[in-house]
Amino acid sequence: MSSSLLCVGLDPEPERLPAELSQQPHLEAVEAFCRGIVEATAPSCCAFKPQIAHFAALGAEPVLERLSAWVKSKYPHHLWILDAKRGDIGSTASRYAQEAFDRYGADAVTLNPYLGSDSIAPFLERRDKGAFILCRTSNPGASELQNLALASGETLYEHVARLAHERWNAHDQIGLVVGATAPDELERVREIAPALPLLVPGIGTQGGDVKAVVSRAATTAGGLFINASRAILYAHAQQGVHSHWQEASAAAASALNSQIQHAR
After folding, report:
1. What is the rounded CA–CA span in Å between residue 219 and residue 168?
2. Mean pLDDT, to the nearest integer, of 248-256?
3. How many CA atoms lie within 13 A of 154 on its CB side?
4. Any idea what DSSP says for residue 113?
5. From CA 5, how far away is CA 256, in angstroms rounded?
6. 10 Å Cβ neighbour count for 61?
7. DSSP 3-state percent helix, strand, coil across the chain (nearest 5)
8. Angstrom distance (rounded) from CA 242 to CA 38
9. Would you name the residues annotated as active-site residues?
């Protein structure tokens, strides 16, 4: 596994693809773009996180299947994290687990814990796979529910972190999703769950601070994956029309990885 803490999100948007790909059929363009991003950024990152809705909305599930198989074959030491935010129970949850792990070859999947432990259990039956549980997310409305105070005195996000740490992680499969835009909550989650891996979105376009994330969440016990998507994927648009898109993304990923390493 790479010493990098950088996770590159794969959120393809056809209208934002480089001009040189715009003449191809959109599914071919999406696949070429994603492969190009992976090749460009693999030296600087330790994981890739495809967002399933960005593929499903385009009818590009077969593209994601091919991309998954290709990444697992060519970059076997990089984690493949399916960002699906699934949350259901019974046979439906089992099918979602089958989709994530068998169809898309995910090493881990993001899950919504709102339905409780039985919505997570089918994913944990696969002992060689992992799950990142939404805990304190990076979006502006997160505090509406996640910061609610419970009768115990804890907030809801603290309760989720404690459940994950003390009850759900019997076989070391659980991690937590905590946004970089909530550094105080990030620090609190790390206090509650010192050994759990944290997947931290919100760096880059959303404005999260790398130094704050590393200082509050990095430990020798628990892993840390700092995710960036749009700032890397569409770096070519920021650097001008004459900048080659793979070179621009490679440079953006390398710069962010260096920033993370310096903060460590």
Report:
1. 21
2. 96
3. 12
4. G
5. 10
6. 14
7. 50, 15, 35
8. 21
9. 85
Among 42, 60, 134, 168, residue whose Cα is nearest residue 104: 60
User: What element of type H or E holds 162?
Assistant: helix 156-163
Q: How far, CA to CA in Å, does 201 sit from each of 71, 172, 188, 224?
A: 21, 22, 16, 11
Which tokens is 201 given? 């979105």
For residues 172 and 168, what is the distance between their CA atoms, to the nearest angstrom? Answer: 9
Mean pLDDT of 116-140: 96
Query: Which of 18-32, 60-74, 216-230 comes out lowest in average pLDDT?
Result: 216-230
Q: Which two tokens stand for residue 197?
A: 């891996």
In degrees to the nearest 10, what's the CA dihedral of 153, 154, 155, 161? -170
**Strands, DSSP E only, in 113-173?**
130-136
Tokens 């991309």 found at: 67
Count of H-run helices and E-run strands, the chain: 12, 8
The pTM of the full predicted model, rounded to 2 decimals, is: 0.94
Backbone angles phi, psi at 34, to 5 degrees: -65, -40
Q: Residue 87's pLDDT is what?
A: 95
Within 10 angstroms of residue 165's Cβ, the number of other Cβ atoms is 18
Cα 11 to Cα 8, 21, 59, 91, 173, distances in angstroms: 9, 16, 14, 28, 25
Which DSSP letter does residue 103 get?
Answer: I
Cα–chain center distance at 43:
18
